[in-house]
Amino acid sequence: MRILVLNGPNLNRLGKRQPEVYGTTTLADVTADLEGLAAELGVSVEVRQTNHEGEMLDWVHAAADDGDPVVLNPAAWTHTSVALRDACAELRAGLVEVHLSNVHARESFRAHSYITPVATGVIAGLGVEGYRLALRFLAGRSVPGAA
Ligand code: DQA
């Protein structure tokens, strides 16, 4: 068992992309930070990003088959992708949807998520801390005796 942290389109641009909205932390920084936290928590984590929807679907299918919990920032696919929602509906080991920004305080099209109805829970607006909280939550569910 490992916890997957899957990131959708444009999140490879983190740190450079609209820093006033998404902050200056890069995805490499997030990855290093989550790997450190996972080691502390005694779980294994794998952080990935793709700009290709089919690749993301393949990752979610594999997570469903392997019983891996998933932290997902679906990025723009949050608001567009029935295909990603259908794939996520198969996950049984926990799915936390994470958004760096508070999607409810932005353009109205960002308020609707195709993913939320099939997620265990959602964290939005807490910046990169959202990933840490999601990892802690899923690690706590998956490691017997962990807090
Ligand atoms: C995002 C919010 C989405 O609306 C946007 O398309 C993103 C990032 C976030 O992390 O705040 O790419 O998921």
From TrEMBL:
Coiled coil: none
Entry binding sites for substrate: 73, 79, 86, 100-101, 110
Enzyme class at the top of the EC tree: lyase
Entry GO MF terms: 3-dehydroquinate dehydratase activity
Catalytic activity line of the entry: 3-dehydroquinate = 3-dehydroshikimate + H2O
EC number annotated for this UniProt entry: 4.2.1.10
InterPro entries per the UniProt record, alphabetical: DHquinase_II, DHquinase_II_CS, DHquinase_II_sf
Role of this protein: Catalyzes a trans-dehydration via an enolate intermediate.
Protein name, UniProt field: 3-dehydroquinate dehydratase
Protein species of origin: Kineococcus gynurae
Gene: aroQ
